[in-house]
Amino acid sequence: MIFMLAGTSDARNLALEIQSAGYAVTATVVTESAATSLAEVGLPNLVGRLTAEEMATIITERGYRLVVDASHPFAEEASKNAMAAAEQANVPYIRYERAHEHYAHPLITVVKDYEEAAHLAAEKRGVIMLTTGSKTLATFTKVLHGLENTRVIARMLPRLDNMEKCEALGVAQRDIVAIQGPFSKELNEALFRQYDVTLMITKESGKVGSVDEKLDAALACGIETILIARPNIKYGQQYSTFEDVLQAVQNTL
To answer: From CA 194, how far away is CA 190, in angstroms rounded?
Structure first.
């Protein structure tokens, strides 16, 4: 039995491949919508954020023999909890990490984290579109809210808790783009032009995360981009293809 951190489309597809290879997989996700997506393709799942201790208890009590972490590249806390849980439960840990992409262009500036992105955006100002999700919205509003010649457009999933967070942080309704991807280059371009965006902030989440479509659209519009690099985490046993993960699972179990 395999305990798997999922929640993204590629994680779901990887879970299906592992299951098709004859292994029992339980995928853990954070949202009900992600759980529904898993259930629709016949994948058992658990819903909710889990601490390392909670994961370790579940792994031990239910007899899971392996942890496969296929969480989002920026789900730093989840990955650290999974590694700690695997160690506590004394089971192996395997990380699936989307392949890194390297971007070099005069309009693209790579920064190490959200805080650096926010302070660089404060220097540049203008109409800033955030495509980094709601989790770190406060990091940006704390620095950018109220700055002269600065408008922040928050693009995020159309969830009630996201709208409540925007209200609490002072993001005006006119500055919210509540929409669910995937987004084509053309749709990204249309949104950038609609809001007269001068600066876009995004994360290096890989091709599956549609970062290419965002960057291509921004470059086509002549828009500067701040690109947040992935967290620097030492995962140990790490692979970037489904084939290598499957081989590692077979070697482990």
So the answer is: 6
Tokens, residue 4? 């798997």
Q: 27 in helix, strand or coil?
A: strand
**What's the CA gap between 214 and 216, in Å, rounded?**
6
Look-up: residue for tokens 């693009």?
155
For residues 59 and 62, what is the distance between their CA atoms, to the nearest angstrom?
Answer: 6
What is the pLDDT, as a whole number, of residue 209? Answer: 61
Question: Can you say how many angstroms the Cα of residue 245 is from the centroid of all Cα atoms in its chain?
Answer: 20
DSSP structure class, residue 59: H
- Distance CA(142)–CA(16), nearest Å, equals 41
Instruction: Write down the pLDDT at residue 53.
Output: 96
pLDDT at 194: 97
Task: Report CA-CA distances (Å) from 108 to 24, 100, 128, 141.
Answer: 43, 16, 14, 22
| Mean pLDDT per 10-residue section of the chain, whose length is 253 residues | 90 94 94 86 91 96 96 92 96 92 90 97 98 94 95 95 95 95 91 97 81 93 96 91 96 91
Please give the Cα distance from 40 to 134 (Å, whole number): 26
Whole-angstrom distance, CA of residue 148 vs CA of residue 51: 41
- In the DSSP assignment, the letter for residue 22 is T
